[in-house]
C-alpha cells in the first residue's frame, strides 16, 4: 500500500497531501515518505528559472521578475558561504561582524569575455541586421494594370473568372483594370535570421543583468553618499553610529564609486547600440518567432564572413551562460538559492537585534538559538526546520519566515495574504527594487497579521527596517498595557486595609508609580495573616467531629479566608507585574538609560517620558479616534522632517509611524489617518 505524500506549510504548520494554492515559493516543505519526482523529503516547493513548478500536479507559477536574478544569486551565495561556519558553530561574534551587504571587492568591474566579444563583433551584427541574407520568393497577385510589370501565364484564365476586373468589353476582347501579375520579393524569414533575432534578445537580457549588477553597487554607494546630508542634519547620533558601523564592516575603496560609474557608462554605450538593432525590419518581423531557436552550424554560418562572426558571438554568449539544462540539477540549484536566502535573512535578523542595542546572553552560543537581554526582559530567537520563533517578554511568540521571492512582483500576493491566518508573522522577502511602501517597509497597522518586509544585500536599510519591526513586537505590547490598572485586583476590604497603596494610584486605580517599601511590607503582612488564619481554620476543622454543629460555620469561614488569601495573592502579583512594567518603561528604548523621576509623567491611561541622556521621548497615548493606546518613540525632542522616508530618517528608532505634522499615526483605526496630538513633553530638571 502506497503512503500518500505529505506537505507542511511553514507559516501555519498545517499538513496536506498537496500544497494549497495560492502559495509562494519556499512556503511548503515536502515531508515524504519517498521521493516525489524531483522532490526529496525535506525539500521546499520552489519554481524553476521561468517561474513554473517542475512538479506535476502542482500549478505554482510566479513571474520571472519575482525570482532572484543571477546577480542576486551570486551575492546571496557569497554571503551564505561566509556564514556557513559561524552558523554551524553558533559563533555570534563573527555573525555580528559580518555586513549583510554586497561585497564590493567581489564585483568585477573589468569587461567580461562576453562584453569584449560583443564589442568586437557588434559592427558585424549591425551589418547582418541592416543587410541580411534573404530568400527570393515568387508570388502571384491581382494588381492594377498600371502596376503590373510581368503578367502571369494564368492571367487570361484568371481574368475570365473575374468579370469585376473588366473595365470595358471590346470587339477583340476586354479591357482589364486588374491582371494577375508575377511578384518577386525578398523573405527575411530564414533560419539564420531567426538566430540573429534570438541572439539580440539574449544579448539584451545578458547586458541588462550586467547593468543591474553594476547599478546595484552604484546605488548602494550613492546611497551612502546621500546619507551624509541626513547624518549631518540629524541629531540622531545613534542612527549615525549604526550606519557607520554597517559601512565600516563592508569592503570598499574611495575610488570605487567612480570606477563603477565608468564601467556602467561603457556598458550603457554598448547596450544602446545593441537595442538600436531592435528597430530593424529583421528583428521586428522575426523576434516573436525566434524565442527558442538554437544554433546549428549551417553552410551560411560556416562560410559567410558576416554570419560566421554572428555564430562566434552566439558561442561566446553560450559559454557565458553557466546554467544547467538538467531538471534535477536545476531543482537542486533552486533549493540552494532558498537556503542561501534563509542564511542572509538570519544575518539581517541578528544584526537587527544588535541595532536595537540588545545584549547577547553569555550562553547564547548555540547553533539554533540566540538569547538577548532587553530592558523589558529576555528575548530569544529559536530556529526550527521551517521558521524562526521570536519569544518576547510580553505577548505570544512571533513566527519569522524567509521567502526567496519578491512578493510585490507576484499578482496573487493580495489573495495569498488574505488566505493566511491573522497571527503575528514576520515575512522577510526579497527586495527587487520596485516594491511599494506596503510591501517594502514595516507598518504597525499590519502587525496583527502576516507582515511582509523586503530585504536585499544591496539595500542599506534592510537591517533598520527589520529592527523597527522587532522593536514594535518587543516594546509595543508593554507600552500598550502601561500604566497598569488594579481595579480587578482591589476588593473593598483590601482598599480599607491598604491605605498607603492609594498614594500610588489615581482615582481610576491606574498604578502611576512603583509602590514604596511600606506598601510591600503591608502586603506581605496581609498575606502572612491570611495564610495563618486559613491554617488555623483548617486545623480546627480537622479537629472537630463531622457531626459538630460548628463544622458548617468553620467551612464557611475557611471559604471566606481562601477568597481573602487569593485576593491578597492576586493583588500582590498584580502590583509586582505592574511595578516591573513601570520599571521597564522607564528605561529609554533608544539608549536604555534610566529616566529620572522629574522627566516622567504618568496619568490615567497614558504615560510620557523624556531621556535625560539622549533627549529621546516616548510614551503611550489614546488615539482621539478609536481610544487605542498608541506606543510612540521619537529619538530627538524636535520632530524631524520625514521627506527622506521613515526608514532613512528614523530607522529603528520609532514605534508608531511618525508624521511631520504630528507625533504618530494611529495603527488601529486607519493607518493613513494622522492622529493629531500635543507637542512632545520635555520636562527639564529643576
The biggest beta sheet reads: 7 strands, mixed
Please identify the oligomeric state.
single chain
For the biggest β-sheet, the strand order reads 8-9-10-11-12-13-14
End-to-end separation:
83 Å
Q: Write down how many β-strands occur, each being a DSSP E stretch of 2 or more residues.
A: 18
Structural class: alpha+beta
Number of domains: 4
Tally the helices: 18
Q: How would you sum up the global shape?
A: elongated
Radius of gyration: 37 Å
Tell me the helix content.
40-55%
Rounded mean pLDDT is: 81
Enumerate the spans where pLDDT stays under 50 for 5 or more consecutive residues: 639-643, 671-686
Percent of residues in beta strands: 5-15%
List the helices and strands and how they pair.
Elements: E1 6-9, E2 15-16, E3 28-32, H1 70-89, H2 92-96, H3 113-130, E4 135-144, H4 155-161, E5 166-169, E6 174-176, E7 178-187, H5 191-233, H6 237-248, H7 256-276, H8 281-286, H9 299-303, H10 305-320, H11 327-355, E8 359-360, E9 369-374, E10 377-383, E11 388-391, E12 398-403, H12 413-419, E13 425-430, H13 437-440, E14 450-455, H14 462-480, H15 492-497, H16 517-543, H17 550-585, E15 600-603, E16 606-610, E17 617-622, E18 629-634, H18 646-649
Parallel strand pairs: 12-13, 13-14
Antiparallel strand pairs: 1-2, 1-3, 4-7, 5-6, 8-9, 9-10, 10-11, 11-12, 15-16, 16-17, 17-18
Helix pairs in contact: 1-11, 3-7, 3-10, 5-7, 5-10, 11-14, 16-17
Amino acid at each position: 500500500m502506497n503512503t500518500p505524500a505529505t506537505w507542511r506549510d511553514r507559516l501555519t504548520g498545517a499538513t496536506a497531501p498537496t500544497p494549497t494554492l495560492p502559495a509562494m515559493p519556499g512556503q511548503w516543505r515536502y515531508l515524504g515518505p519517498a521521493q516525489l519526482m524531483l522532490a526529496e523529503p525535506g525539500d521546499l516547493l520552489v519554481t524553476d528559472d521561468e517561474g513554473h513548478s517542475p512538479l506535476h500536479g502542482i500549478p505554482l507559477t510566479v513571474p520571472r521578475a519575482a525570482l532572484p536574478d543571477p546577480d542576486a544569486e551570486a551575492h546571496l551565495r557569497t554571503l551564505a558561504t561566509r556564514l556557513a561556519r559561524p552558523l554551524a558553530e553558533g559563533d555570534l561574534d563573527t555573525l555580528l561582524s559580518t555586513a549583510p551587504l554586497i561585497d564590493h571587492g567581489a564585483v568585477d568591474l573589468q569587461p567580461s569575455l562576453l562584453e569584449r566579444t560583443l564589442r568586437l563583433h557588434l559592427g558585424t551584427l549591425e551589418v547582418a541586421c541592416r543587410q541580411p541574407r534573404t530568400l527570393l520568393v515568387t508570388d502571384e497577385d491581382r494588381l492594377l494594370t498600371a502596376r503590373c510589370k510581368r503578367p502571369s501565364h494564368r492571367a487570361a484564365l484568371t481574368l475570365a473568372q473575374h468579370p469585376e476586373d473588366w473595365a470595358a468589353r471590346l470587339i477583340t476582347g476586354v479591357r482589364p483594370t486588374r491582371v494577375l501579375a508575377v511578384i518577386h520579393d525578398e523573405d527575411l524569414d530564414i533560419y539564420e535570421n531567426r538566430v540573429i533575432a534570438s541572439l539580440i534578445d539574449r544579448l539584451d537580457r545578458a547586458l541588462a543583468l550586467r547593468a543591474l549588477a553594476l547599478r546595484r553597487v552604484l546605488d548602494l554607494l550613492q546611497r551612502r553618499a546621500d546619507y551624509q546630508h541626513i547624518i549631518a542634519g540629524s541629531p540622531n547620533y545613534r542612527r549615525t553610529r549604526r550606519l557607520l558601523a554597517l559601512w565600516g564592516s563592508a569592503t570598499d575603496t574611495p575610488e570605487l564609486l567612480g570606477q563603477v560609474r565608468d564601467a556602467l557608462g561603457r556598458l550603457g554605450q554598448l547596450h544602446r547600440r545593441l537595442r538600436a538593432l531592435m528597430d530593424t525590419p529583421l528583428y521586428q518581423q522575426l523576434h516573436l518567432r525566434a524565442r527558442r531557436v538554437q544554433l546549428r552550424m549551417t553552410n551560411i554560418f560556416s562560410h559567410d564572413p558576416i554570419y560566421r562572426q554572428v555564430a562566434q558571438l552566439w558561442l561566446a554568449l553560450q559559454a557565458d551562460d553557466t546554467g544547467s539544462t538538467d531538471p534535477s540539477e536545476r531543482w537542486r540549484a533552486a533549493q540552494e538559492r532558498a537556503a542561501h536566502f534563509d542564511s542572509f535573512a538570519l544575518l539581517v535578523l541578528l544584526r537587527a537585534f544588535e541595532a536595537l542595542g540588545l545584549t547577547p546572553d553569555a550562553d547564547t552560543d548555540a547553533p539554533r538559538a540566540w538569547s538577548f537581554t532587553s530592558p523589558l526582559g529576555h528575548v530569544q530567537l529559536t530556529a526550527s526546520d521551517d521558521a524562526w520563533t521570536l519569544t518576547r517578554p510580553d505577548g505570544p511568540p512571533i513566527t519569522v519566515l524567509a521567502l526567496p521571492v519578491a512578493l510585490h512582483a507576484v499578482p496573487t500576493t493580495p489573495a495569498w495574504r488574505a488566505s493566511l491566518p491573522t497571527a503575528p508573522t514576520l515575512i522577510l522577502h526579497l527586495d527587487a527594487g520596485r516594491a511599494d511602501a506596503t510591501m517594502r517597509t514595516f507598518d504597525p497597522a499590519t502587525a496583527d497579521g502576516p507582515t511582509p518586509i523586503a530585504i536585499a544585500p544591496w539595500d542599506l536599510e534592510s537591517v533598520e527596517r527589520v529592527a523597527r519591526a522587532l522593536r514594535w513586537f518587543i516594546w509595543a505590547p508593554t507600552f500598550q498595557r502601561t500604566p497598569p490598572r488594579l481595579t480587578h485586583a482591589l476588593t473593598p476590604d483590601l482598599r480599607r486595609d491598604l491605605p498607603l497603596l492609594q498614594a500610588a494610584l489615581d482615582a481610576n486605580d491606574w498604578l502611576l508609580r512603583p509602590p514604596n517599601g511600606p506598601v510591600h511590607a503591608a502586603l506581605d503582612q496581609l498575606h502572612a495573616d491570611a495564610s495563618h488564619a486559613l491554617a488555623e481554620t483548617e486545623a480546627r476543622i480537622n479537629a472537630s467531629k463531622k457531626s459538630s454543629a460548628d463544622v458548617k460555620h468553620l467551612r464557611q469561614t475557611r471559604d471566606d479566608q481562601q477568597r481573602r488569601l487569593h485576593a491578597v495573592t492576586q493583588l500582590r502579583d498584580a502590583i509586582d507585574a505592574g511595578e516591573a512594567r513601570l520599571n521597564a518603561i522607564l528605561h529609554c528604548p533608544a539608549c536604555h538609560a534610566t529616566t529620572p523621576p522629574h522627566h516622567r509623567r504618568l496619568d490615567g491611561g497614558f504615560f510620557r517620558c523624556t531621556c535625560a541622556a539622549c533627549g529621546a521621548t516616548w510614551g503611550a497615548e489614546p488615539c482621539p479616534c478609536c481610544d487605542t493606546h498608541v506606543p510612540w518613540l521619537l529619538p530627538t525632542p524636535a520632530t524631524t522632517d520625514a521627506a527622506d522616508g521613515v526608514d532613512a530618517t528614523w530607522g529603528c528608532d520609532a514605534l508608531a509611524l511618525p508624521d511631520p505634522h504630528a507625533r504618530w499615526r494611529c495603527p488601529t483605526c486607519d493607518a493613513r489617518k494622522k492622529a493629531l496630538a500635543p507637542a512632545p513633553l520635555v520636562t527639564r530638571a529643576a
